[in-house]
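User:
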Amino acid sequence: MAALRDDGSAAAARVRLRRDAPYRLGIVLGSGLGPLADAVEDAVTIPYADLPGLPVSKVSAHAGSLVAGRLEGVEVLVFSGRSHFYEAGDAAVMRNAVGMLKHLGCEGVILTNAAGSLHPEMGPGSLMMLDDHINFSGENPLIGEATDGRFVGMTTAYDLLWRAAFERLAGEAGIPLARGVYMWFSGPSFETPAEIRMARILGADAVGMSTVPEAILARFFGLRVAAFSNITNLGAGMTGDELSHQETKDMAPVGAKKLEKLIRRFLRDLQDQGRALPFTSP
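Assistant: Predicted structure:
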């Protein structure tokens, strides 16, 4: 746990040695979004293993490297893959990674994930922007934090102004964008049909195994947050078919192309119009 107490400062120092720049945004890529990392210009790729305190994911389809550079003219730090709670039972596994963004001057982070839909009309290939989440796992990355900073307000965990901006940009680009509530299950097994029925009753629109810990950590570090689910399947029991990780990997690129386009428009809007969008105090 000693590495977690560092809160990313050592990793930030290592990044500055490789590429020092006025970074503005972090982007965490879920399954299928690898091509976005490949599009970063003036890029320096740093394996997580070379950054103190950053975990190396063992999940297939997650590259495990940080790409520092410019995307649509904006200085970004792109996480190509992430570690999950289910890999080692540690909800704070991404604490250093998120803290590193703050140490490098970022003012916000865009989180993405692959998720299962609870609505037949929001099928595979759809995009859902998170309005809120339900932490069904009961785990929290701030357990053990000694300061009063652990009492993080989550009323507007997902930034209202960013959500409005993404909705506007999606409309202008003709990209269908649903909005809803994401429920975090610990994984790694998929949910049961009974759990999917429960999730729907409790008000969830999609389910998955990530994102919520990073959102909590981002708010702890004072970062703005936007998050998106790339829908890869319908929930257990909704089709009669068994779920699999292979299905996630096969379907992820479909929605990922739309999400990449939306994120690039967001960054271009930031750069072309000189907007502070709106990087005032969260």
